[in-house]
Amino acid sequence: MNVALREGLDTTQPEAGSGIELLLWILIWSELAVFGALLGAFLLLGMLDPAALAAVRGELDLPLAGIATAILVSSGFFAARAASGWQPLGNLIAAALGGLIFCGLKIVAFTHELPALAAMEARLAELYMLIVGFHFAHVLFVAGLLLLVAWRPTPRHIAGVATIWHLIDLVWLLILPVVYLG
Amino acid sequence: MRFSPALPLPAILICLFVATGLSLLAASVLPAGFRGAAIAALSLTKAILVVLGFMQLQRENVVLAGALIGYAALICLLAGARIALSGIS
Predict the structure, then answer these.
(1) pTM listed for this prediction
(2) Do B2 and A85 touch (CB under 8 A)?
(3) CB within 8 A of A136, min separation 6: which ones?
(4) How many CB atoms lie within 10 A of CB A142?
(5) What is the pLDDT of residue A3?
(6) Could you say which of B3, B10, B46 has the minimum Cβ distance to residue A16?
(7) Is A177 on the interface with B (CB under 8 A)?
(8) Which of A87, A156, A157, B79 could bridge A177 with an S-S bond, Cβ 3.0-4.6 Å?
(9) Residue-range domains of chain A with CATH
């Protein structure tokens, strides 16, 4: 089945310069604008209230965030392989599994982070939950999309979903220094 | 048609792992000023690797690739500055 898919992709994959739809890029920049505003607010509140920032940071699980990052960039690797035409079915499923493992790790982190953060009643803690929760929802939703595309892959859909997946990778890589590091 | 990336994907993944590990190390051991600069530089490196290595956007649209990297650079710069300034009080 993979061979058949590869053959189908090799003959129908669009040229690299054919472009991804404008609508997809509007979606991507909208997402970046929203996350940019949230991260900007987190940076600003952190500057205004360093004590609250230190308290929030004290509750975060940095090693688990590091492992989750490694898992997410690995799933990006598989999505990139799928978009390049390498065994799209297997690589899309591997990318989706990476996303689901990332979600599992975040749930583990949330189980001990959220009770402590909720008890703080600080704006920064609320913002942390909003940013990371919003990103979590994106990972979960697009992991589902990856599986959906893996079910009936076409080059156009693979390119689109892989681009959105890389956006989610990129957003997490920006969340990491703003929220977890430092 | 399948195109071959300029940098092999496994090499990009390894670079991303290394940069992530170095970021975590920098967050744990460096003083605030160096920590801010190191984390900003490493985070921007990771963002560039994703945009140019995984998305291969530069092959399709150089302006979009540049805009995404510029956006990432702005957030990394602000994060690095905030971390560096946390040592001044």
Answers:
(1) 0.88
(2) yes
(3) A103, A106
(4) 22
(5) 41
(6) B3
(7) yes
(8) B79
(9) 22-180 (1.20.120.80)
